[in-house]
Amino acid sequence: MKDKIEVLLVDDEAIVGNRLKPALTKIGCNVEVFEDPKEALKRIDEKEFDIIVTDIMMEDVNGIQLLEHVHRESEWTKVIMITGFATEALAREAMAKGAFDIIAKPFRPSDLREVIAKAAEALGFEKKTVA
Amino acid sequence: MSVNIITISTDRYSKGKEIAEMVAQKLGYECVSREVILSAANEFGVPETKLLQTIMDTPTILNMFSRDRQRYMAYIKAVVADYMLRHEIVYHGLVGHPIVRGVSHVLKTRIIANMEDRIRLEMERENISEEKAGKIITALDEQQKKWGKAVYGIDVTNPIYYDLIINVGHIGADDTEDAVETIISTAGHKKFQPNTYSINCMKNIALSCRVRAVLIDKDPRIEVKSDKGSVYIYTKTLKRKSQKQGLAFKEEIMKIDGVEHVEVYSDRETFLNFAQGQ
Fold this sequence. Notes:
The structure holds two protein chains of two kinds.
Chain A: E1 5-10, H1 14-25, E2 29-34, H2 37-46, E3 51-55, H3 63-73, E4 78-83, H4 88-96, E5 101-104, H5 109-123
Chain B: E1 5-10, H1 16-27, E2 30-32, H2 35-44, H3 48-56, H4 67-86, E3 89-92, H5 96-99, E4 106-112, H6 115-126, H7 130-152, E5 164-167, H8 176-187, H9 196-215, E6 223-227, E7 230-234, H10 243-254, E8 261-265, H11 268-274
Helix pairs in contact in B: 1-8, 2-4, 3-4, 4-9, 6-7
């Protein structure tokens, strides 16, 4: 098992990546941030990430499409959806399509860290890897 | 926290209770119905019979918005929401599912039966004519609709409020097993898995119901929304009162477990625009 958790974060609002990258790096994740979901898809095709954190409402490629793409490429990767437009229907759609979790914005970086820790544990990372 | 909930609401004579108990037993969940009324009675120091009347009697124009009725209903909702937050349950009854509207990990089920079967069962049970039995069943259905309208402002028999509707009359008179299996397999679908968003919705609902129950004596028309410990309140009681009283009001709310921040609005439109959460 690797020492570091490979995380890809995609959100078309730069502030989200800027805020979350240091919070996740601090707990032992290697984080790659993308504002353009199409660029994120290219990177996903090149590399298998452990965890992908994606916004849902994005132009060109939305988070649900990204989730479907990831699961076509890899059964390993856990996908965490973040959205400012959470509804019962959207949560159900994301979970039905295999999302690991869905978090409504705004949230604290510690909220995401908790979910990342759960996803890492589900992947078999030791608890000390995410601390 | 990962808590699964199934709510089952039923018509009279549709085997709902039996099905709810079987689902709970197979899943290892608790089957909850009137037990919560007893909990609410104990917790809020109200006679159980008064609470039972609140959920069973059809509200009349005179008592629909009576202070007692609203108070008792607020207590019941607070206990039901709290129970749903903390336990894996199959809730059988009418009170549960409208409270958790919008919570994605709750499977909201309704069991119905053919009218002719229900009338036949009423005839057998009460030894009465078909005409009389028909009138009784129709009156009971009407009572259920009126109750839902008065308490939640919705027609609780409307299919749009449910994820799954099963007509037991269509799957064989004795075949409750099919209904049980259908509910269990539906509840097991990924879309009903608890997630951070849905659990937060449940927590918000439970806190809002709790705050409303505590404040209902002060204002029976009080409206409450919560979002991760922030509580938003609409009440007219503070409109003409002093700032000092306003602060005392906020301090009282801050004492409630889980409340981190309070905002009080005396204008409903502002409340609706700014209040977050559930």
